[in-house]
Amino acid sequence: MTATSISRPVPGATPLVPVIAWPRATVLSLLAAVAVGLAAAEAVWPEASAHLAPAVLAAASLAICVLVVRHERRLDRVSAAPWRAFAVLALLLALGEAIAALRGVGVNATSAGWQDLPLLAAIPFALLGCARLVRSAATGISARVVLDALVALVALGVLLDVLLDAVLGRAVGSVDDLMALGYPALGAVLCTVGLVTFAGVGEARRIAAGWLLACFASVGVVTVSGAIAAVSPSAAADVVTGTAWMAMLAFGTLAIAADPGQSTDPDDEVAAVPLLGVVISYCAAFGVVLLLLGGRIAGRPIEPFEAVAASLLLVLTFVRSLVWAADGARLTRQVLRTEAYFRTLVHSAADITIVLDQHGRITWDSGAGSHSHGWTARELEGRRLTEFVHQDDSTELAAALAAGADPDQGRGRTFRLRSRDGRWPRYETVRVVASGALLGPVRGADVTAGSAGLVLHLRDVDDRRETELELERMAYTDYLTGLPNRARLMAALGNARSRAGEGEQSCLLLLDLDGFKAVNDIAGHEAGDLLLVEVADRLRATVRDRDLVGRLGGDEFAVVVRAGLDESTALAERILVELAGVHRSVPTPGADPDLVFDVSCSIGVTELHPADEVPVAVRNADLALRAAKAAGKNCVRRHGETADSATVRRTRLARDLPDALSRGQLRLVYQPVVGTVERRVLGLEALVRWDHPVLGEVSPDEFVPLAEDDGLIVPLQRWVLEQATAELAGLLAEDRDLQLGVNISVRHLQSGSLVPDVAAALARSGVPAGRLMLEVTESLFIGEPDRADGDLQTLHDMGCVISLDDFGRGYSTFAYLARLPVDVLKMDREFLAGIEDDERSAALVHSVIELGRRLSIDVVAEGVETPGQLARLQELGCRYLQGFLLGRPTAPAQLAAVIDAFDAGLLDGPLAPVEVAVPVGE
User: Fold this and answer.
1) pLDDT in tens, 477-531
2) Where do the TM regions start and end (predicted)?
3) Phi and psi at residue 7, in whole multiples of 5°?
4) What gap in Å lies between CA 869 and CA 830, rounded to an integer?
5) Do residues 439 and 450 make contact, with C-beta atoms less than 8 angstroms apart?
6) CATH of the domain at 514
7) Please, where are the H alpha helices in 298-421?
8) Whole-angstrom Cα distance, residue 549 to residue 543?
């Protein structure tokens, strides 16, 4: 230990203040050197020791006093209180020895004098310091401690009486004789007080109290040697007194160094009587009785005081034994009650607790006889736990046991244990509490010898494991078809890619149903679900057992084929043939029982390469699928065959479309609508164009479906509404009587933002609502009839004109015209094909015009490209015309000039034929 040793608290104690350095080694070394030097001086030069010896003792005591004062000033007030009293005690001892040095009476005065007053005054401060130490403990002094102290006090009194009687050999006749007897008596009292202090303090300060007891024992030696020297002065007695004095100071130093301070947590104090105090009291009692009996046998008479004291010792010892018996009975009842509580707790708990000894044998199992494993306590106890663990899980058990010193490392380990009926339920380690690692290896575990065993807390996770498996199945299974879902397919593709790295060939087939949207739109989603289930069943029956078929979502399926490209393509052809037969009536309540849908599929095939990530493989298969769609559907295409211009163009457009609006690549053009009666331009239709920096001008027929598929149609049409109404406002400000037509996508209606977007565009531009015509297609009413009714009626109530565009192209029904707020019908260009020569086509056009007249709905014929069509439409009574013959899509800058320069003579026939370019994106 160095000179700057730090006083370390007892483990478990909570000191109130930081640990203070105490120069223990330095002080002890100096005190030992002083004791040796003083003993040599008293033995060699006894004449000088009368002044020198007490002066040395005074200086040593004063130095210790100064050190104690400096030390206690750095402690908190409560922790320093006992040592403050002992500092005063050391000061009084130093004062008494200083007076003795001045008088020259030596360390053992033969008569009473002034030097005795400070020494007697120090006794109360010793008692005060001990009282403050005891008071710092939360437990206090029990009756058992008092009994032990009384036994020790009486025993010490008898021993001193016998000793002094043998030394003095006379009765007390003077003050000097009284002092000779009183000092040993005070020493016995201090030893008793030290014993009480040792038993009464808390566990944290018990070491300090033990050194203090040794200090008081040294005081007893000083008093006894002083009493002997008062009768028979000798240099040996002086040496004993000086050495015991230095020992007293040294033990006091050790007591201060070992004190951690008063604990702030009452739970740190343990209500227990130290066994050492009991041993001392019992040994003292029986030692005194044996001493008196031995003296009596040797011929020494037993004095009345000694007989009474011996009897009192026997009575006190008897009472102490009764108290011990009562404590034993009480503790036994407490242990039994605690054990009953413990057994009730562990037996009613869901977890199982298994106690293992140092050899890995089971000593106790909380689930014995009551748990589902079925084993009884007799069948388990004494057997190794490794006898019950499944051989495949022995590594997990070994890891849990080896990590016993660190409970967190053993937590969560799962292994199977054999039950009595032969099952293998699975258990999970909740906690592994170790009193040490197991002796010897357990199934390969490296453990340390010298331990008392382990306590395992296990949880039966069989039910939880089944639930986890079910949740895992649900997480990787499509709820409708029962096929693996996208997550499971992605994992399977990852495994197939790994196998491809080892030389095994694998391919991915991507399938998309052709004609499925019509099933949902016309027969309903229930019919679509039934169709998907049938497709899934046919795919299961067609693919091989080693192949994985799954559903990606919607009407998209995928197959992971463990074969090369040729074999996978052949499988795709078989799937194509099988699904081409899905011509089924849909047994949906309320649907037409004779309604039959022709559903086929398109398939893209790609080979999995180790160098390609899974998303790359999926993208390649998707490109092949798009090529199959572009080739007319109901066919198979490989990824290597997809490098045609149409596919490359579509892929490039899909990639660049998201940034087209922000880069200013989109623009609007306007095509005039002419009135045959008014003989002028009455309206404009806004048409969006995309000026691609590489591919040139792109028509809406190409990029609008891409915008709908990628979720970009709403911001695109919002921009169209704002731009078109702003430019119309400029034309209206120039006193032009015009209406503006804007095409509306069904996806915009489905988003629920159409009404607020239209209102915002009208408010921002200041265009009256009656000037805006919203052109919708029939598919909008088929897919979203309820929303179409509500939102279109709201727009109609605002004053907007509702136009039914491409009338006759889709699933036309007159019921929509009677129910919905339609103001304008726009006949599809296909109606005009052959109108000049085919009377049936002309009759059909006439019926639509007549229908509009009877329903008060204006009819617009679009796609007028020849003078013959114009003349025939005028003959049939169509008042509103649109087409390349009357006006091409025009940029906003030239629009005013085109409107003003319209030649009404175009409406007068007959006219010479004109060359008309094929319309693009009208």
Assistant:
1) 888 888 888 888 888 898 898 888 888 899 999 999 887 877 776 677 787 888 8
2) 51-69, 81-105, 117-134, 146-168, 180-201, 208-229, 235-258, 270-295
3) -70, 120
4) 12
5) yes
6) 3.30.70.270
7) 304-348, 377-380, 394-402, 407-410
8) 8
